[in-house]
Every structure is written in C-alpha cells, then in structure tokens.
Amino acid sequence: PQPRAVPGIEDCAREPIHLSGAIQPHGFLISVVLPDWTVRQASANIDELLEVPAAELLGESLADYINQDVLEVVADTVSFAEPDAPPQRAGVGNIGPFGVLCDLGVHVADGLVHIEIEQQPFHQRGNAPTGVAQAMIARVAAAEDAGDFHQRAAEQVRLLTGYDRVMVYRFRHDDAGEVIAEARADDLEPYLGLRYPASDIPPQARALYLRNRLRVIPDAGYVPVPVLPGVNAQGAPLDLSQHALRSVSPVHVEYLRNMGVAASMSISIISGGRLWGLIACHHREPRPVPPGVRAAADLFGMFVSMRVAAREQEETMHRYERAQQVRDAVGSRLSQARDFRAALTDELALLRETLDSDGAALWLGGEWSHDGRVPASLDITVLMEWVERLGRPVLAMTDKATDWRTDALQAEGLAGLLAINLGTPEDWLFVFRREQVEDVRWAGEPAKALVATDDGTRIAPRKSFAEWKQTVHGCSSDWTDGDRRGAERLHRVLREQRRRLLAPAEDRGN
Ligand code: BLA
Fold it and tell me: Exposure check for the chain: N or C terminus, fewer CB within 10 A?
C-alpha cells in the first residue's frame, strides 16, 4: 500500500480483528467435528497439554487423547449450544497424560465444536459463578438511582476480579465515550469524567462486542499462539469472533502499554440492540481471570445491561407519552381551525416545548412568524438555503451552528436547528436549540488519537493520556433518535391537518 501522510479512523476500522488466526497463550484450543471427534484445528501450544504436536493431532480423533468422561461433558454442552453464540462453561476435567485439572469452554461455529481449555489455577475460589453473580446483583439492585447503580456495579466487579481499576464507560452519540463511574486502588489517579475519542474502540470492535460480551487480556505482554491450520475447510481464514482466547489487535495491545496497563477485561453493556457502554477493567500487573470468575462477570453484565435497557425504555416511553399528548392536542385544535397558519402560530410555544427546544418559527405561504424566542435578525433565506443544500428532506436536523449559520446572520447563541416540512417544498416549521458551551476533559489530545508510525503505513495509538482540556463552542445538545421519531410523528400530524384544510379548496378548483 501507498504510504499515507494522514492516518484515519478508516485504517483502524479495516483491521479484521476476528481473523487474528491466533489465541492468547493462557489456554489451548481444539476444534473438532462430531460425532467422531475428528480434530480440524488446534493451537500450536497443544503439545504442552497433550504431549503431541498440533500438526500430528489434526485429522486424529480426540477420543484417543482425552478421557471419555471429559468428552461427555463437552457433548452435553454442545447439545444445548446455540450456533455462533459465545462459549459456555462446560465444566472441569483432567486432561492429558498428566491429568491436568482444566476448565473447559465450548461453542459451536463454522460447523465445528470449539473447545477452549484453561488450566485451573491452584487456588481457585470455590464459589459457584451463579452464587457469586447472585450476590453481586443483589447489591446493585438496591441502588437508589442510575448514578448509584453504576458506582455499585464498578465496585462489585472490582471485588470480583481484584483489578486495580474498574470503570463504567458510556458511549456518546458521536461514539466517543466517557467514564461515568469508577472504583480504583487509592494510589491510582482518577479517570472519572474523562472522555475518549471514538477511534479508541473502532466500529468493527464495537460490532463484535455486541455478539461477544466479554473479553480478557490477562497479560498484555503475551506472545500469540497460532491456530493450525490457518484456514478452515473452505480455505477461508479462521473466524475467531466468539473464541474467549482470541488473540487481540496488536494496536490495542500497544494502546494498553501506552496507558500503563498490563491486564485488561471488558464487559459489554447492551441496550436496545446497541452497545451502550462497557465495564472496563485495568490492572498494572498481569492478572488472570479464571473461567468461573468470567462466568460470574458475564451473568452480572447481562443483569446490568437489562437494568440499563429497562431504564432507557422507561425514559423513552415517558417522553413519548408526553409528546403524544402534545400532538393529540395540537392535532385536535388544528382539526377545528379554519386557518392553518393562524392556528399553527398559536401552537408554536407548545411545539417548542415538546421538541425540547429554545425557539420556534414558521415559514408558511411566504410569511414568517415565530414564538418571540428567536432573534429578529434571523433570515429565512439562510434557513431555506440550508434545507435546499440537504435536498429538502421532510425532516432535517443539525446540532452544529457552522452547518447553517453564516457570519452575516446575527443568530448568536443558537446552534441546533431542526426543520419539519409542512407539505409543500416552500413551507416549514423550524425549531432551534441554544448553543451549549461545554468543557471537555479528554484522556490525551484527541487529535493525536491516531499517530502515524515511522514508515507512515501503519497507525498507532497516542502515547500520552494526560488530561487535555477543550472548550467546545457552536454546538447544542444533540437531537436524539427519540427527538427524530417525535419530529417524524409531528410531521405526519401537521401534514394531515394541512391536507384536510386545503382539500375543499382544491376540490373547488377542479
Ligand atoms: C479495543 N479499546 C478496545 C477495548 C477497549 C478499548 C476497552 C476492548 C478490549 C479490552 O477490553 O481491552 C479502549 N479502554 C478503552 C477505553 C478506555 C479503556 C476508551 O479502559 C477508557 C477508560 N485503539 C486506538 C487506535 C486504534 C485502536 C488508534 O487507540 C486503531 C488503530 C483500536 N481498540 C482498537 C482495536 C480494538 C480495541 C482494534 C479491538 C481489540 C480486539 O478485540 O481485538
């Protein structure tokens, strides 16, 4: 590839992280076909466990190497495994000629049964994962509000894993994210409130973390272990999307090193089919997270996700109901009106409120009216040029002043603009949101989130995570999906009432 002067987030997004072709060295992988247990893939380190080189194991039956009782445990798990779902804990078994006590994780993907094997630590805690998760859930369930809930969640995960630092990290609408709760060792500086750019967790990683809820890097200094052979039966690279042991992106390992992190774990928080955030954990020293602890963390993460999703749904429903009342009221008053324009002008204050905005104006039949909250200098040609540039959709919105304001336009203090078409290309309802000057504390300068390396062909994460302050001007609060849906419904109500009022006139014209 051509050397590139300016690295971009596209470069991060292009890395096929699920095709790393290798696992981390704290475990072993054997992939088989049932019912005869023929080995199709094995990690190159398998000789440490089975005393047979991976290349020799391929094509053999695993039944010749592993005890029948262990195979039965695996077969049992397979019988209720959902294809392409994350690994399930199958249990423990004594494996290999020395009978090493191991944890077994099993999942089915790409027509194979994947068995991930991790040696049990000598001093594993005896508590069953379900019991541990139950206790954790009971402690967070008693939280008073969302803030308290996230704080307790961070504390519980820290107690469970013993990591130095556990954070609840929430994605924003622009895919950057913020630490909204934190439990940490006393001698660590707080990261609470810091913002991280979207490129720190590129889109393919976020997509993968929706399907695969938990990942652990017990030692960021690890040397990857290749999986043999490097391709599947169709000759395609191995898809390790769901493997718990998947070797991660080297760019991310570098990121952890730059942050001073030696071990990392993260748990997905999923709400409404969207990756809402992560419970992100760091440790300054390498630190294993045994399968039993991971299982408890996974269960706990699912509970956190469900609570977050329930709260979001409640809020959405609450806003929806309020907006629906306004639409009904406006619709019923317009339905009795003779003059659409006059009637709609009377409703501007109500419409402004239901769209959570700070000013509303109407451009209808070539006439301008507003709610008294927009500057007199506001110039309709500027607004019309903006909707024109966007191709006159029925609905247009921006939270950035630079998208629509011109220097000549004296509209100081306004930044957000939402336009709803009123049935003809010329007629529009506009609502405005005030500029919100925001002080952002970034974890390192975001412009340096991507750094070109010496040869210019590869990009690297930033080296410094020292707090970098930025004051953001010219933006309003963002228009959410809920705002968009509310505006769409309002558009339909207004268009319908308008059509009804216009219809008799058109009939007479015919
Ligand atoms: C993955 N980046 C991740 C992950 C986290 C972060 C949590 C998931 C893996 C894990 O659990 O360690 C980022 N970690 C954070 C953030 C905080 C944290 C924001 O603790 C804040 C508190 N990263 C870069 C650049 C690129 C990049 C420039 O900085 C791309 C070129 C990529 N990050 C990147 C990739 C992954 C990743 C590719 C996926 C790793 C994998 O699963 O293979």
Answer: C
CB 112 within 8 A of CB 31: yes
pLDDT, tens digit (0-9, with 9 covering 90-100), for 295-347: 999 999 999 999 999 999 999 999 899 889 989 999 999 889 888 999 999 99
User: Across-strand partners of 42?
Assistant: 30, 228
Superfamily name with CATH number, domain 9-312? GAF domain (3.30.450.40)
Ligand 1 binding pocket, CB closer than 6 Å? 11-12, 15, 17, 167, 169, 177, 179, 191, 196, 199-202, 205, 215, 217, 248-249, 251-252, 255, 264-266, 278, 280, 282, 449-450, 459, 461
Q: Whose CA is nearest to atom 41 of ligand 1?
A: 248
Specify the pLDDT at position 126: 62
Q: What tens digit of pLDDT does each residue of 342-392 get?
A: 999 999 999 998 899 999 999 999 999 999 898 888 888 999 999 999 999
How far does the centroid of ligand 1 lie from the alpha carbon of residue 106, in Å? Answer: 26
DSSP 62: G
Is residue 75 over pLDDT 60?
yes
Residue 390 burial by CB count (10 A; 0-12/13-18/19+): exposed, middle or buried?
middle
- Among 215, 36, 39, 61, residue whose Cα is nearest residue 115: 39
- Mind listing the pLDDT tens digit for each residue in 19-30? 999 999 999 999
Fold of 337-437+473-509: Beta-Lactamase (3.30.450)
